[in-house]
Amino acid sequence: MALSQEAVGSYAHYLKPRGTLVIDTELVRQTPSNIFRGLPFTALARDVVGVPQATNVVALGAVTWLLPFAKPEAVRKSLKASLPEKIRAANIKAFNLGYSEAKKRLGEPMAIPDPTLGDGQEEERMDLCNIMADD
Q1: Is 50 exposed, middle or buried, given 0-12, 13-18 or 19+ CB atoms closer than 10 A?
Q2: Which of 24, 5, 11, 6 is nearest to 132 (CA)?
Q3: C or N terminus of the chain, fewer CB within 10 Å?
Q4: How far apart are CA 15 and CA 73, in angstroms?
Q5: In the CATH scheme, what is the code of domain 5-130?
Q6: Domain boundaries, the chain
């Protein structure tokens, strides 16, 4: 996840070869490869939610859509339980917006191969515990 050009420069090297970079398309103009998915997270937070500080929660909604094992209801429940009432509604709106925009504009969630199939392609599989490169 890169919400700024500086973040791409600082952290993109941690991305595994089969990893997917998710970017804020309004703020990131140069990516290290042509393999990425993105939405204008900051613009959505500012223009639709009305709270630019909710950018990260819009991004959380999008990532929840992209990860097939992520459960949107569990994330909403966590947001409701952890956020002060004063900012809860705006953040739930931001999460729902990110989720729905990702569903409309970013295509299908990322495929995670089943390691139990035994088809001889173990080196091609993505281990969820090993998505990012070691430091």
Answers
A1: exposed
A2: 11
A3: C
A4: 28
A5: 3.40.920.10
A6: 5-130
